[in-house]
Amino acid sequence: MNRSRLVSTCLMIAGFVLYFLLNEPETGHAMHIMEGYLPLSWALFWWAVFLPFFILGIRSINKIVKEHPEMKLLIGVAGAFAFVLSALKIPSVTGSSSHPTGTGLGAIMFGPFAMSVLGSMVLLFQALLLAHGGLTTLGANAVSMAVVGPMVAYGIYRLIMKVAGSQRLAVFAAAALADLATYVVTSFQLAFAFPAESGGVLASFAKFAGIFAFTQVPLAISEGLLTVLVWNWLLSYNAKELTQLRLLKREESL
């Protein structure tokens, strides 16, 4: 991936981000679980769940970079895409807010374990620079956005490619369902930590999931469409790299 291609890709992503920023109403609540919101026991539990995936992710990225050093810039693009999309906070009609995740693209290209590292780095910088999420809740946020979401994206992409063979449909579904899976997991995390007095965890999950659903479903569809546009851009400018990642047949890159 040469420098001009990188600049072109980044400019396109920045254009979409600028559009959403200029059209975003003000919001006061971040959708990542905020600092100090989870009880300590649950915060530690999710950290323990996340760390093995992070270690596997470091190994995965090291392997990719060792075999394909030219992929470093493309890995950076995948991380930047996740950062700018997940930094967008869209108000919900219920007074909460939601945002895209942007992890589906990287999961398709580099696998779910690599995104556990990229996604957690995104969450760390957002917690430190944007007060979006938190450090104690980073483990929980990473499990939902950087672990489960990418795994769903990767699995859906492979399944649709095997069954239907439609790559753009696979990219759209992978990105959209990764977004939705993130918020299903977040809803369960909050429900486990704060079960309802009447109905317990399931009643609490229904409440949290219902709050997010108003904005998250259309956001997931929008993220799927945007990811397909970015994918088309990559097909035009980075077919060689996608072929090396075995995402394109060699004849398609010619």
From TrEMBL:
<comment type="pathway">
    <text>Cofactor biosynthesis; adenosylcobalamin biosynthesis.</text>
</comment>
<feature type="transmembrane region" description="Helical">
    <location>
        <begin position="169"/>
        <end position="196"/>
    </location>
</feature>
<keyword id="KW-0171">Cobalt transport</keyword>
<dbReference type="GO" id="GO:0043190">
    <property type="term" value="C:ATP-binding cassette (ABC) transporter complex"/>
</dbReference>
<dbReference type="GO" id="GO:0009236">
    <property type="term" value="P:cobalamin biosynthetic process"/>
</dbReference>
<feature type="transmembrane region" description="Helical">
    <location>
        <begin position="73"/>
        <end position="90"/>
    </location>
</feature>
<protein>
    <recommendedName>
        <fullName>Cobalt transport protein CbiM</fullName>
    </recommendedName>
</protein>
<feature type="transmembrane region" description="Helical">
    <location>
        <begin position="208"/>
        <end position="234"/>
    </location>
</feature>
<feature type="transmembrane region" description="Helical">
    <location>
        <begin position="110"/>
        <end position="131"/>
    </location>
</feature>
<keyword id="KW-0813">Transport</keyword>
<feature type="transmembrane region" description="Helical">
    <location>
        <begin position="5"/>
        <end position="22"/>
    </location>
</feature>
<feature type="transmembrane region" description="Helical">
    <location>
        <begin position="138"/>
        <end position="157"/>
    </location>
</feature>
<comment type="similarity">
    <text>Belongs to the CbiM family.</text>
</comment>
<keyword id="KW-1133">Transmembrane helix</keyword>
<keyword id="KW-0472">Membrane</keyword>
<dbReference type="GO" id="GO:0015087">
    <property type="term" value="F:cobalt ion transmembrane transporter activity"/>
</dbReference>
<dbReference type="InterPro" id="IPR002751">
    <property type="entry name" value="CbiM/NikMN"/>
</dbReference>
<keyword id="KW-0169">Cobalamin biosynthesis</keyword>
<dbReference type="Pfam" id="PF01891">
    <property type="entry name" value="CbiM"/>
</dbReference>
<keyword id="KW-0732">Signal</keyword>
<comment type="function">
    <text>Part of the energy-coupling factor (ECF) transporter complex CbiMNOQ involved in cobalt import.</text>
</comment>
<keyword id="KW-0812">Transmembrane</keyword>
<comment type="subunit">
    <text>Forms an energy-coupling factor (ECF) transporter complex composed of an ATP-binding protein (A component, CbiO), a transmembrane protein (T component, CbiQ) and 2 possible substrate-capture proteins (S components, CbiM and CbiN) of unknown stoichimetry.</text>
</comment>
<dbReference type="InterPro" id="IPR018024">
    <property type="entry name" value="CbiM"/>
</dbReference>
<feature type="transmembrane region" description="Helical">
    <location>
        <begin position="42"/>
        <end position="61"/>
    </location>
</feature>
<keyword id="KW-0406">Ion transport</keyword>
<keyword id="KW-1003">Cell membrane</keyword>
<keyword id="KW-0170">Cobalt</keyword>
